[in-house]
Amino acid sequence: MQRRLFLQTGLSAAAGMLIARVAAAADAIGKVVKTEAEWRKLLTPEQFHVLREEGTEWAGTSPLNKEYRKGMYACVGCDLVLYSSTAKFDSGTGWPSFYEALPGRMASETDPKTFKSRLQYTEMHCARCGGHHGHIFNDGPAPTGLRYCSNGVALKFLPA
Ligand SMILES: [Zn+2]
Question: What distance in angstroms lies between residue 128's CA and the mean position of ligand 1's atoms?
Answer without folding.
Answer: 5
